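Aim 2 progress update. The chain analyzed this quarter is reproduced below.
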Amino acid sequence: MELQGNNFGERLLEARKEKKLTREKLAGLADISSKTIANYEFGERYPTIDIASRLAAALGVSVASLIGEEGDIIEKAREEYGSRGVRDLRELIDDVSGLFAGGELPEEDKDALMRAFTDAYFTAKEKNSRFTPKKYRKD
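Predicted structure tokens:
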């Protein structure tokens, strides 16, 4: 099954409805609470890879299709910065996704914004590399 949702919560809800499972039934199959599933579906929380794996198995879908492309990025944020980092990253992804998905921003402004994001990333990367001790650099 190809999941179409834009984020983990939407894909989880889509897969659960496709399998005609209630939150309670899925919770029992994945050994988590139905409240936790509701939090995931509403985008209030993001699962660990372990929980995403259990949900994927219970739904008969791949973990990759359930967590989507942002899953790896979010897992890295969790490892580096904990739950606060995940929350901040989710907010940023949701805001930027909403900005690019629709609204009144003209295409040329979207392109300019993407260039600004890219420039900011590479500027910060260059600046930070100057302060990394030589023994930790990947030169």
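Residues 105-139 form one domain. The chain has two domains: 1-103, 105-139. These observations will guide the mutagenesis experiments scheduled for the next reporting period.
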